[in-house]
Amino acid sequence: MRRLIAFEHLSLDGYFVDQNGEMTWAKHDHDAEFNAFTTENAMGGGVLLFGRVTYDLMASFWPTPQASQGFPVVAERMKNSPKVVFSRTLQHASWNNTQLVRGDLVTAVHNMKSEPGEGMVILGSGSIVSQLALAGLIDEFQIIVNPIALGGGRTLFEGLQERLSLRLTNSRVFRNGKVFLCYEPIA
Description:
8-stranded mixed β-sheet, alpha/beta, 29% helix, two-stranded antiparallel ribbon, 10 strands, 187 residues
């Protein structure tokens, strides 16, 4: 079965987007250590999964010359990787190598996991994360805790109706104050 990873940025006070629904606070900085980690992580391969809002944000940045100049490896990976966007409202997915899925999210991802191929990674897309976590379909949560408090916004597991127990499997502290935490669900 294909593995599904959720890769998420969180503020120190637990939000994945701020009060305006934005993630600009989690942007990459000019820290060589963290940027090397991001580049290495982007080389992992697999299918990228997005909700519509995150898809719109990613599609507006990663294909730009600014992204290619600032983050060439990540921009190339984002451009060429197979992508799936889950949306009931999006009419067309125009970003390179993107498939639009309108059906039931849980059923679609369950079916995708049972197909042969590389793993899958959810980037952002908090409402998708909470739905798939509740359904037991996420195999690993990779969280970057950013040294910023937002004071409000949306939590990553908003809407989760049952307790989700996790086990820490890896961690790393960066000089820029960001912390990488990797968790797996406890069955």
